[in-house]
Amino acid sequence: MKGINLSGVVHEEHLDIVGEAGFDLVRLPVRWEVADRAQVERTVEAALRRGFEVVLDVHHFAGDGAALVALWRELGLRFEGVTFELLNEPVDAEWWNALLPRVLEVVPRRPVIVGPGRWNTVGALPALVLPPDEDLIVTVHYYSPFRFTHQGASWIAGADGWVGTGWGSEPARARVREELEAAVAWAHPRPLFLGEFGTLETAPMADRAAWTKTVRSEAERLGLSWAYWDFATDFGAFDLTTRQWREPLKAALFG
Q1: Kind plus residue range of the DSSP H or E element containing 27
Q2: pTM above the 0.85 mark?
Q3: How large is the average pLDDT for residues 130-147?
Q4: What is the pLDDT of residues 95-115, one digit of tens each?
Q5: Using CA atoms, how far apart are residues 107 and 76, in angstroms rounded to an integer?
Q6: CATH of the domain spanning 2-254
Q7: Burial letters 35-53, b for 16+ CB under 10 A, else e
Q8: pLDDT at residue 210, rounded to an integer
């Protein structure tokens, strides 16, 4: 499955654009504490009508474990026809391992998507303790090397000093292959979903496209479904101002 993340307020025209491009999966990152839940429901219904596979995510969650359990008790009954991703990028692995069985108890349908601590990074997989549930899908996010993909990020101290970092050497390409292969090996026999990968717009476009193509190609070689981060933010493959795809990135995702 070829997917893209649709963050923020999603209009039906956005779904038409990504469908026409060739994507067949959309991941919807939702900050539920502030979200218009009726609007989310309308977006999910519109995506399903268009034949998309939909991953519904809990994003930027600021509550405690009890609040997350309560949220999933509600969401599990409210939404049908989608795949649930229980928590985007948990940080504390020990906290998440202890909470995960409690969350799974209140989610009525399978499969569901679960990722490791430390922001869903590949290196955090060995610390993830999965309950004995055959219908779990493991997810990772891939932004390696971080100084390349996040150069100039306004929310990271010192990232301005990374601007100009390039990418594309053979050792760098080999690292992508090795890290994704390691993730697949850890998840086996469960499927692995590459839920996010992308580069900030401050990175050189030629290198962004080369990195994106390499990650996407390796994911497909390994049989993974994937979702690019993202549609139209500062990582976006689509420019909302010009209403055009950034062709090097689109080609990297489909070429």
Answers
A1: strand 25-30
A2: yes
A3: 95
A4: 999 999 999 999 988 899 999
A5: 5
A6: 3.20.20.80
A7: eeeeebeebbebbeeeebb
A8: 98
